[in-house]
Amino acid sequence: MAALTLRDVLSFSCAFFACFHVISGSRKGDQRHERPADDEFSGSAYSTDNTLLIEHSFEPGLNTKFTNRGTLNFRSLKAGSGSFNQATALTAGEKRKLREVAKTDGLYRIRVATKMGSPSDSEEVHYVSSFTKACALVESRLSDHITIHADQSGNVMGVHVLPLRGSCDQIEVESSALNYFNTTVSLEVTVPAPMPETQAYIQKLEEEKAQKAKGNSGDNRSFLAKYWMYIAVAVVIVMVTSGQQDAGGRGGGGGS
Predict the structure, then answer these.
(1) pTM (2 decimals)?
(2) Which of 50, 111, 149, 250 is a plausible cystine mate for 74, CB 3.0–4.6 Å?
């Protein structure tokens, strides 16, 4: 076996450290790309099943016309918060209508569908709505808070809108502050109350009914059937007493 030269030793050492560096780097890369398992709220994607289209109206009176305002998005029905996405800025006409309604102390209205997700073309859509003073929304510079009330199945039971400012102080607001909504979103899911133990309650009622019926159930036999022994004893006593009286009467008559 030939003796190893210094060059051979250096080449072997370099190759060894290069392999070690590649293996170590690949392990770090694998760890860097690992994602926590079973994390319901990981990522930034929202399910389309947990999305609500929100519409609004600046029209005065009861015959209001609603237009698209944006979407409310929730990662899960368990989430306590959501996000609002506004597709486009308010147009000049929409801002003008909003200012006009605010000057007359009118109302700003919103509405959402009672079911989350995108409805089909043949599906009839039902809405829940809410309103607030338009002047409060304008003076809040379109900053508001929207709360969605839903059950555990995702059915929307109510909606509530609240501007950042709760009063109207006739504050002048520049038009550039009315382009986009600054909206925070909350989701409140109702929790059903604990159900009573109906089976145990019904069983208890049946037992009480049976005991009551047993206590009220009297002897339905006739009078003679119930008391024939006492009647027989009384008859015997009467017969004996009558016999003694007859014997005494006959004895008294013979001595006179």
Answers:
(1) 0.58
(2) 50
